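Anyone else keep sequences and structure tokens together like this?

Example one:
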Amino acid sequence: MKHGIKILLMALAFVTIGISHSTLAATQAGKAQTSQSKVDAPTPAPPEAKAPVSGKSAEAAGERVSINAASAEDLARVMNGVGLKKAQAIVSYREEYGPFKTLDDLTQVPGIGGSLVERNLAHLML
């Protein structure tokens, strides 16, 4: 009986070692392919040569828009965390209820919270 248990444990140890070895070999092969891909990849352009990726980049950093006059596209471009759908909601609310009296009135628009308004105070004006 003891001899059978020893053989079973040894067989289990060999299987575990085999699985560990194959997993390690697969991981090393994946790393080798990744590092080879990095070697083949072209080097990125210097930071000053890169074009802005999105419309909400450096050009929108200092730009301010009027929440009472801007189009939905302008609002979506300038406001951080506001896409076209929320910007359209702002314009629709403005058209239905009239111009905003304060910037905090934006919180009355469904989907626009106080933290979103605070985050965008530097980009908005009346």
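And example two:
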Amino acid sequence: MIRVFVYGTLKPGEINYRLLCEGKINRAIPAIAHGNLYALPAGYPAVTPGTGEVHGYVLEFGSLALLAELDALEDYEPQRPAEANDYNRIKIEVMDENRQSLGLVWFYQMSSERVEAMGGIQIKDGIWRSPQPPSI
């Protein structure tokens, strides 16, 4: 079973979940990871190492092909040097909403330097919300 913590456009109900994950996920478990969450001007989030809490979901699935699609979406290629990737896929421990460990899962993390260069704005409450289109 492959388990990936997601906190942005891959969360259930968000655009990339609908495009890539819908119908392919065994379970989506609300979860919390440690790190600092940022909104990027391009309309998606990033997490850097840090002491804050990031709220998202652990997606459980059995497809290596889906993991490869997620890697492509996050511009992660394991054979490239870490600094050449937008995000790097690492293993971290996450907790459920009761602060009980859910064990180690895959996680896409961006460097603090890259977030700063992209103009990221920290989201203090640790919950990314998709940008709303302007009302007409």
